[in-house]
Amino acid sequence: MLPSFYQACVQAQLSEAQFITLQMLVELLQKERRITLERLAMLFAQPIQFESRRRNLQRFLSLPPLQPRAMWFPIIKHWIKQHYGRGKQLRIAIDRTQWQDRNLLMVSLIHGKRAIGLYWRLLDKQGQSCLDEQRSVLTPVLRLLHGYRLVLLGDREFHSIALAHWCGHQRIAFVFRWQGCFIVSVEKLDSAVS
Question: Does residue 108 sit within a domain?
Fold first, then answer.
C-alpha cells in the first residue's frame, strides 16, 4: 500500500473514486511481475466488459493529475525536504537507456547508493539524445529542486560543450565523462558562468 505522505499528496490531486481506483491499481502492480494494460484490465475488479475496463483504465492513466509533474513532484519534494536541508548539495544524474524499441531519457536524484527517478521522457527516436531533449528533462527538475545546490552527473553521451555551457548559465556544477577515462568537471560556479 501507499505510505501515508504519498496518500496525502495523491488525495489532494484526485477525486475519491479516482483515489480508490489508484489504490486498486497499486495493489495489482505490487502482486504482478510483468504487466500490460490488457493484463490489468483482466485482473481489475470492475463489473463491466473487458474492453470497457481496458478503455476505462487507459483513460484513467491518462488523467492530468497522474502525470509526473502533478503526482510525483509533490511526493518527491516532500521526501527531499525530510532528507535534505535547504541549500544542501544534491547530485542528480542524467542518463538514457534503451529497452528494445523504447528509448528513455531520465533524470535521477542520487541518494546514497540509489538513484531515485525524478523526471523522464520517452524519446520518439532511437539512439542518443540532443541538447533540446536533455534540456526538456532537466528544466522541470531544476524548478523542482530550486533552492538546492546541484551537481549534474553524466556519461559520455552528455559531454557536449553546449550542455556544459547551458549548465553554467543555469548555475549547475557538472561532471561529465568523455571518451576513455577523461572527465570534465566544473565545481566552481563562478568560473562556469563567466
Answer: yes
Are 117 and 150 contained in the same domain?
Answer: yes
Contact 133, 94 (CB under 8 A): no
CA distance 60 to 40: 12
Q: What are phi and psi of 144, to 5 degrees?
A: -60, -40
Binning the chain into helix, strand and coil, the percentages to the nearest 5 are 50, 25, 30
- Mean pLDDT for the chain overall: 85
Rounded to the nearest 10°, the torsion over CA 165, 112, 25, 102 is 40
Domain identity same for 62 and 115: no
Average pLDDT estimate for 89-106: 91
Q: Which domain holds residue 30?
A: 4-66
Q: What is the pTM of this model?
A: 0.76
